[in-house]
Amino acid sequence: MKKITDFSRSREFSRAINDVIPGGAHTYSKGDDQFPVNAPAAITHGKGARVWDLDGNEYIDCSMGLTSVSIGHGYEPVAKAVADAAYQGTNFQRPAALELEAARKFLDTVQSGDMVKFAKNGSTVTTAAVKLARAYTGRNRVAIAKEHPFFSYDDWFIAATACDTGIPVQAKTLTAGFSYDNLSSVEELFSDKNHDIACLIMEPVKFSPPKEGFLEGVRELCSEHGVVFILDEMISGFKWALGGAQQYLDIKPDLATWGKGIANGFSACALTGRAEIMELGGIRRTGADKVFLISTTHGAETTGLAAMVATIDAFKTHGMIESNWQRGEKLRQRLDQIIVKHQLESSLTVTGYPCLLAVICRNASGQVDDTFRTLLMQEMIARGVLFQGLLYPTWSHQRAELDHIERAFDESCAVYRKAIDANSCSNLLVGPPAKPVFRKKI
Ligand SMILES: Cc1ncc(COP(=O)(O)O)c(C=O)c1O
Asked: Which alpha helices (DSSP H) does 272-353 contain, by range?
């Protein structure tokens, strides 16, 4: 395959953007330290599953805007709905009429809870879920699944990470950890009479299926101990099923949070839940304490809600969930064959569900290794595949795009093989390896 070698404008851009935007991006996972040196620093535009960088290089996109672009870049029915909404006005002094239609449609689609509150960011809705749970239970602490990397950029979650600078030390005491797939770790937390835990939050599933009985066990323990059970469907919503992984795995939370793919990359997120809890954020219980749930100027901007409605329509009309699963399954089979062809079974593993795959990279000793992962990224990028470890098959990843990914993976595996044989990436990787997002020191 023809290799991409020109990143000159990207290099200039990296220098310039870090002078004016701390971190050089608006989520840390898009920053320079998450990519090899030979990578596009910025994207000028995208269409379907393809994006273009500042130097005019074209790529197949594997992560689609942190998996938020669930159909494709610039997908016309959604873009048109957004443009129409923009021309009709985006924000009014009273709710937009669209808010009721959007709320009914979303609740009917995800079948999770009786009420919904919209917002622009995932962190806003997870934090709102925590606030509601605290108001409902009168307790303060939050139990989080330790293995799940991100729930919110707010203090209640960031206090529990290595990046706790700038957060009051007291915040740390308000978060407790349990282990996903380990029911005893939840039992242990709740067995303390003074646990003060208002809610338990986790993603329903990551890359491996939950152990039998784990989710049901957590559900029961939460009910038994009066703890609000929150499922964060930010990633899994509109991937495992339209109703998220909770629908796929048949598990009912008290509250659920949604974002990313629900509006094909536009900014629309949602908190759903049982009326008994959600209504605490309402204004109909005259005389009761008011819970200041989500109250933001841009939360229900018509463009985001119009994008969400059009995204739901497109998913339903074209059966996108089923087709994404089929594409993902075929892709996984092909990548597995390529791994076998290069005898890399102990170094590269394609994991996950077909609707969201990930490649785990190990070194010659079998340890998960960021340097080897960066080498694979570098080689895929050089062959026109913008890859960061995830493979998210969407409606826009048609045969041509999947073929391209497979060919790039085949050639990249040949380079990876050399690194494994040499037990080092040093003559192959240009620049430093990508670093973890959550680390104490820069
Ligand atoms: C599982 C999960 N929850 C919450 C969030 C926060 O969403 P946002 O970045 O929109 O604030 C993310 C974002 O990556 C996420 O992956």
From this structure: 275-278, 302-318, 320-341
